[in-house]
Design brief:
This protein is α/β, with parallel strands linked by helices. The protein is built from 14 helices and 16 strands. Helix 11 runs parallel beside helix 14 and helix 13 packs across helix 14. The model has no long low-confidence stretch (mean pLDDT 95). Bound molecules: pyridoxal-5'-phosphate (PLP). This is Glutamate-1-semialdehyde 2,1-aminomutase.
């Protein structure tokens, strides 16, 4: 597309005049990879079309929610029916109860569920609840994990135990992050040291079980086990942020996978988003009844929302969960995602490009690194310029991956083996140019 016929660029210029950076969420701006973001006109199945009517195979799927692909007919029907009944009531509905029961059936550790409208809100509320329940202030998070943009979670790594946390965003007062401790992901020794020093002050440890915000880094089984043991020993809560992994890596979420390797493993609280809304603003947090009963109106921890449990979002989420509960859904998705990853790896190997892969269900990560990284520092050793070349090569050919090397990718049930084969064919051409 020559610049004077590209319709994305003038839209981006217009957008920049009225929306900061031209986008409503920063990663959409292509700052990491350079170039012009694609403005989406419409999407169907595994594809979307941009302002130029160019078709893309979509490996982002709205950053995770679209596990059935875009515009699944049964989801559309459920949403259309809900729209006709009313947009929002600010009063309870039966569908919220059905959705909460469905979540509890699929994720038994979530004995009670509270619905909100975004993953950020869910994570922020879970933290407040953990602090309210334990009566403690300190929280532990891990370098490279993202839990939304609540003030007390926007903390720079490297502060460790030696110093107070320092904010990673302007506008967050030092006082707000002074109780946030950032440790290295998968570093058991550092975790043990932290609990030995301040265990009695820790309200909770929050982590992504598979860190999709480092592309795809699994928490090791030993790391997960020690978090569970240490939080239990010291009276702190373990919060599993499954906003990205929830219902995407397995029907029982990532916790069902870790429970196969750690006997009796359950987190105290779980945070969900993305897939549970099927593309509508919907998220939730939940966990042990005794903890959840501390929430208002039952308990002293305040939490509320005008649009929480929105009737259209619940219809969309519920239908999505029903459809992904069909036997074999995640096994098929895992197989297909594996074909994509193995296909890309084979082509990278043939071209002599360093490449490592991992995937689970419909979530994947690849790195232009010879070995899979297990920490944020290792992820950041990726050659950014090489990634950008790969990224733009694939984009030009109509294959849409996350525009940043530290972001995971998503395959939906709507992607066909032919779509994947086309992506692998395109990658063969692109790897030769690197
Ligand atoms: N937690 C994780 C693991 C996420 O990946 C995200 C968003 O990508 C969030 C929380 C925040 O969710 P939201 O963007 O819906 O606020």
């Amino acid at each position: 597309m020559t610049p004077n016929t590209d319709l994305n660029q003038p839209l981006f210029e217009r957008a920049k005049g009225v929306i900061p950076g031209g986008v409503n969420s920063p990663v959409r701006a292509f700052n990491a990879v350079g170039g012009t973001p694609r403005f989406v006109k419409r999407a169907q199945g595994p594809y979307f079309w941009d302002a130029n009517d160019q078709q893309f195979v979509d490996y982002i799927g709205s950053w995770g929610p679209m596990i059935l692909g875009h515009g699944h007919p049964e989801v559309l029907q459920a949403v259309q029916a809900a729209v006709l009944e009313g947009f929002s009531f600010g009063a309870p509905t039966e569908r919220e109860v059905v959705l909460a029961e469905k979540i509890r059936e699929l994720v038994p550790s979530m004995e009670m569920v509270r619905m909100v409208s975004s993953g950020t809100e869910a994570g922020m509320s879970a933290l407040r609840l953990a602090r309210g329940y334990t009566g403690r202030n300190k929280i532990i998070k891990f370098n490279g994990c993202y839990h939304g943009h609540a003030d007390s979670l926007l903390v720079k790594a490297g502060s460790g135990l030696a110093t107070f946390g320092s904010s990673s965003s302007a506008g967050v007062p030092a006082d707000v992050v002074k109780d946030t401790i950032v440790l290295e992901y998968n570093d058991v020794a550092q975790l043990e040291e932290a609990f030995a020093k301040i265990g009695s002050e820790v309200a909770c440890v929050i982590l992504e079980p598979i860190a999709g915000n480092m592309n795809f880094v699994r928490a090791s089984v030993e790391f997960t086990r020690r978090i569970r043991e240490l939080t239990q020993e010291h009276g702190a809560l373990m919060i599993y942020d499954e906003v990205m992994t929830g219902f995407r890596v397995a029907l029982g979420c990532a916790q069902s996978i870790y429970a196969q390797q750690i006997e009796g493993f359950v987190p105290d609280l779980t945070v969900l988003g993305k897939v549970i809304g099927g593309g509508m603003p919907m998220a939730a947090f939940g966990g042990r009844r005794a903890i959840m009963e501390k929430l208002s109106p039952l308990g002293p921890v305040y939490q509320a929302g005008t649009l929480s449990g929105n009737p259209i979002a619940t219809a969309c989420g519920l239908k999505t969960l029903e459809l992904i509960s069909q036997p074999g859904f995640h096994a098929d998705l895992h197989l297909k995602t594996g074909h994509l990853m193995q296909g890309l790896k084979a082509e990278a190997d043939a071209a002599g490009v360093p490449f490592s892969i991992d995937w689970q269900g419909g979530l994947f990560g690849f790195y232009l690194l010879p070995e899979l990284p297990s920490t944020y520092h290792a992820v950041m050793k990726t050659d950014g310029a090489l990634f950008n070349k790969f990224y733009h090569g694939m984009l030009e050919r109509g294959h849409y991956f996350a525009p940043a090397l530290y972001e995971a990718g998503f395959v939906s049930s709507a992607h066909t083996e032919e779509d994947i084969a086309r992506t692998v064919d395109a990658a063969r051409e692109v790897f030769k140019t690197l």
